[in-house]
Specification:
The structure is a homodimer. Chain A has 2 domains: 144 residues, Aspartate Aminotransferase, domain 1 (Alpha-Beta Complex), CATH 3.90.1150.10; 239 residues, Type I PLP-dependent aspartate aminotransferase-like (Major domain) (Aspartate Aminotransferase, domain 2, 3-Layer(aba) Sandwich). Chain A has 12 helices and 13 strands. A 7-stranded mixed β-sheet of chain A has the order 2-8-7-6-5-3-4, with helices on both faces. Chain A has a 4-stranded antiparallel β-sheet with strand order 9-10-13-12, covered by helices on one side. Chain A has a two-stranded parallel ribbon with strand order 1-11. In chain A, β9 and β10 form a beta hairpin. Chain A is α/β, with parallel strands linked by helices. The radius of gyration of chain A is 22 Å and the shape is globular. In chain A, α5 packs parallel to α6 and α5 crosses α9. The interface between A and B is large, with 83 and 84 residues.
Chain lengths: 401, 401
Amino acid sequence: MDWNSLYATRMGKVVASDIRERMKLLAARQIIQLGGGLPDPSLFPAAEIAAATAAIFADPARATTALHYAPSEGHMPLREWIAGYMTSIGAPCGVDNIMITNGSQQAIDFCGRLFLSPGDTVAVEMPSFIGALRAFDTYEPRYVALPNEAEAPLPVGAKFGYLGSDFRNPTGTAMTLAEREAMIDKAAAIGLPLVEDGCYEKLRFEGQAVPSVFALAVQKAGDVEKVGVLHTGTLSKTIAPSLRVGWVAGPSAVIRKLVLIKQAADLATSALNQMIALAVAQTSLDRLADAGRALYLRRRDAMLEALETHMPPGVTWTRPEGGLYIWVTLPAHIDGAVLSERLLMEEAVSVISGAAFYPVDPVRNTVRLSYSLATEEAAREGVKRMGTMLSAMLETAVAAE
Amino acid sequence: MDWNSLYATRMGKVVASDIRERMKLLAARQIIQLGGGLPDPSLFPAAEIAAATAAIFADPARATTALHYAPSEGHMPLREWIAGYMTSIGAPCGVDNIMITNGSQQAIDFCGRLFLSPGDTVAVEMPSFIGALRAFDTYEPRYVALPNEAEAPLPVGAKFGYLGSDFRNPTGTAMTLAEREAMIDKAAAIGLPLVEDGCYEKLRFEGQAVPSVFALAVQKAGDVEKVGVLHTGTLSKTIAPSLRVGWVAGPSAVIRKLVLIKQAADLATSALNQMIALAVAQTSLDRLADAGRALYLRRRDAMLEALETHMPPGVTWTRPEGGLYIWVTLPAHIDGAVLSERLLMEEAVSVISGAAFYPVDPVRNTVRLSYSLATEEAAREGVKRMGTMLSAMLETAVAAE
């Protein structure tokens, strides 16, 4: 059978993520990894998770709950805990405002499924998280830019706007309080729902915490039921990715629709994983987040210092106060894809070309760095090689003029 | 914000599954459950799963693998095991022919996402599995009937056909060898891809096993790469639902597309759950399936005997050789929805109205029974009450004529 002719139109357009393909390549070689933004496995609380799991199976009733289908909404005690957590960060929520998902990636996908039919418009930051773009792609939308600047008008006619307010992938930048408040007001004025990706929220290691767009919207409206914002969260960055436990928070009427989508998509998230995640979150989340913040702060500092030391003139970069990413803007005529390819092949250093983070009109003189997996020594050596190669590329470009 | 006006068109049509809503109601009362088809928790191998989990965490390298992102394709050793399992049931597969999903529900949803754009046609058996219909609904298709009879022509122009060859939900019936072979030939003749739901395959407790449509297609083509059939499987019915481990098997070119969908949907299935499922499958799957088959056979027998004893004339039912369901056809003027509602409210017996299993043109004089959770005593008592009520409804109907 010639399957290729049978796929839905959009599937022809869905291509392998550059990052994931590159990760496979990396696994086979001794590479300095400044590319992928995976959490450092040394942070995984294996002992706590093992103990939590043993405790579940030591109690026959809990063991049965752990092995049977969870409700599509999620395991109730975990929903209660997350509602309390959301309340503690300034967004008072009840259990009916929370649904559990397989990581926040699934929450983002479900927002696409909820709002988008083919040909609809979605507004995203440019650049934006690749995982969100790939999820939205499967619903065949058109993309327009969602500008963060307080004074910039929002696009009219989009079905929703997707944004990462804290240390977003790929830029590492955070929205200011004024930008968040303006975003809420402007979106409300044109009836644009917002989906806020909160996955890096717990990873602020510097500067003053700013309430999430969701929390500000709840405070402004006085009631979560009245807000025009959904918020996604995850325990992947603070406990462990493979529990696959994330959530979406929002007005209960929207959560009820998302529960129907969850039911249709995979019935429910693993009850076992939800129970493990709850037990570890209750006892250890703050300690785990502290350990992650301390490690990533040291690594960010090493990478920023190396950039100062080794980048040639004309290169600029962001200075994240949290999260895992630094966004580098190269001189205008340097293509980040060429740089990343040559760095990998000639210098065994992995960085990610920035163009892939734009759904339309890619800005090509960009690369994304991550310090999540790079030891301080690796960051220094990798950035040094990148600087040397960039200087050589710039000289060649000058000589060619 | 008025969210209701913002959802994609199809979301207005997506309504809560009657079954799931009913299950919530049931949880609160002492009900004889002849409705939902959940596996019996007494079969869950809690001790084996606890031991497998402890062994994973006792080895630091395995613990790290268990807690980090699995590849989107799935944990390689589990894919290898499933490829071997598929080979052992007559469908020689390699790892590239297997992708892991969150239960087979997610595999079914992904097939919808792969093939369907709004307005496309999908062919399904009538009646058909509700979970598949709800998943396909979100892609806004039109439905046509996929007849199983060997001589019936298949509908032309559908993007794919979805079928359950073994003991399908809701009828409990299995396709004959001749029907399977004819289905493959007819589908190939019109270029119709087939998606075979294999979730009840391991639950045959009587009669001669018939190879799956997928296995027959591989044998016919001589090579899995050439078949026009995808096959979904799961460990939910034989190990435990909440591991959420299922799979889809097919030509590697299609699996590669499905991997991109998986990546966009939720990145990967939990590595921990995949490793647990593999360990238990390797040591205990046959024993667990034996225990399930023995239990469900006893319960089926009790239910069939009770039907013989208590059903009034004019009622017929299927006699499943496996799986969890019996499909009951009532006299033409009896509405299964009225019967199920009255049985629940007046007699505390839960059965499922058959109409919901039809995406179009519901046949209303039908109900689905399941023996999966009903002890032999409960089946006898519940079916007796159903027979008494049906007899009364028939007398009322005769009196009214």
